[in-house]
Design a protein that fits this description.
This protein is mainly alpha-helical. Helix content is 49%, strand content 12%.
Amino acid sequence: MPEMNGLEVQTRLQRVSPSTRVIVLTAKDDPSVRRKAMNAGASAFYLKGVESGEFLEGIKAATESTN
């Protein structure tokens, strides 16, 4: 993204819509990024190539936590 990175998007989204759930999907396996995303409230953090079933379970868990 040319304007901001994913963590910046997550931070802005959290400000304007605190109830919106964020699931991070990235190609970069960086423990510090994972930690920052999860500490900022991400529902889940996945690396690209994640099994579809595991990813769908993360989506399901995120949507159920909003109810």
